[in-house]
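Q: My labmate handed me this sequence with no annotations at all. I'd like to see what the chain might look like in three dimensions before we decide whether it's worth expressing. Could you predict it?
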Amino acid sequence: MFISLKISNVDKLPPGTATSYAARDRSFEIGRENCDWTLSDPDKFISGRHCEVRYQAGGFWLYDISRNGTFINGSSQRMAGPHRLAHGDRVLIGRYVVSVSIDEGRPASGHPQIRAGSTQRELPPSTGRPLDFSNEPFFSPAEQRPGQAAPASTSSALQPPPTPAP
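A: Here is what I predict for the chain of 166 residues:
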């Protein structure tokens, strides 16, 4: 299942703030600091970790973990417990109105979309595998220091140094 969150009132955003966030079949955090979707908030209405969206039982559930509250669909009452997010929901986080889109068939990058004019750039997607250098030495023979041979394998670097002869 795919979820997309998008800030509706982008006029309130400082430049460089991600205007949207998308994910597929996974949980994520929203807040002012060190979260999957970090929202700029110089006035500190948004908590460092403001809310969590948990993927559970085939749906996305919103949990308020903030000091100032998270509000759903124009309610003046802060959330009292978990809320199953539905397509079309509107969530108030600090001063930001966030529109919810849920779709069963769209791909998700899991990365925030950056506002135009930002200096932030998205990294290319990970392959999920470590890079393969085919056991080639890092330095060519010409690049090695004189008098030093390249290690026989990467595992030899993990061995203790040889014991000096008595």
